[in-house]
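Fig. S4 source data, part A: sequence.
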Amino acid sequence: MVSQRAPPGEQRVTVFGYNLGHMPLNKELIDILACPKCKGPLTLRPDESAFECPRCQLAYAVTDDIPNFIIEEAQPLVKQPLAK
């Protein structure tokens, strides 16, 4: 059996030893998700690492393609300084 590692930053799904590759989050699910705190809209980061709520300024991590919407575990969004 040949073992293949996923490139850094890419996750692979394995079921019963069969590599199913990277499974992106379902677009229909993303469209209906809401912030668990304010019930407002969420945006998914381009790298699919977290959902962000602009209203609450919180980021909800996505680990192994599973979003974690526990409010107490959300991270505050880091504000980017304005470019001069």
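Fig. S4 source data, part B ends here. The chain is about 5% helix and 25% strand.
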